[in-house]
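User: Study the fold:
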Amino acid sequence: MRTTQLGQLTVSAQGLGCMGMSEFYGATDWDSSVATINRALDLGVTFIDTADTYGAGHNEVLVGRAITHRRDEVQLATKFGIDRSGGDGHRVYRGEHDYVKRACEASLLRLGVDVIDLYYLHRPPQTAEIEETVGAMAELVAEGKVRHLGLSECSADLLRRAFAVHPITAVQSEYSLWTRDVEDGVIGAMRELGVGFVPYSPLGRGFLTATVDLSTLDAADFRRRNPRFTGGAAEANQAIAAAVRSVADAKGVAPAQVALAWVYAQQERLGVPLVPIPGTKRIKWLEQNVAALDVTLTAAELAGFEPLAAQAVGARY
């Protein structure tokens, strides 16, 4: 497994997103999820991503138990700031000083660790200025409870303001060949400040893998309500999935591997270190995703994918 440098943090060139092991993507299974995390570590995927809001803390407990005997192998990332205590229809993005400190203590307890390697603010805060939030996060670094700081889904201006308070190691945002919003926004500031990029949903929430049967999604699967997966949008977006599958078939690889190879191919053009964190609950998909590190796309194949993001129908949330 190759490694990538996010600021001063060295991580595996591919990470593992663990959200779906607890929520949002249908039925969950503790034992198979723990086995998947351990198989990831066996394969050298040591950058493990969770958040306090996934399963209302369940995911941090799961990840913590999975790595309990292998903590030294892991670069552990978690996130705070999405308060769902009033229900999903009344989410609050929080960032006030005392909330930050309490959130970190709670995450450390659930994870069963003494220190978090990369601690993200999950969304720009509604309850505080970014300077207050990052100031509290910086205190956590000084206290030895957190090693590096990150932001998720932030603007260029917010990143610069945050960085003025304390160095930011990474920004996490959605990014794939059908979602490229960050290229017109925060990427320039990341390049300027030397901040790494952690793309989530690099497989388009599974749409780009050509393995998702939309008609059989579990009732609890949030994609049943996602704008790109429903109604006429889903039908229109099949052309994007078909374009990926066509290249995959020609190369003799899986569509998911082509979608990930596209993300890796953008690193030089974007000018920032880049580590995608595809999520999965199953070992077979994990192994397939890791194998994407050995897939290379030609210039012609990359050019053929250029128009796809503009063709996507439906908002990403």
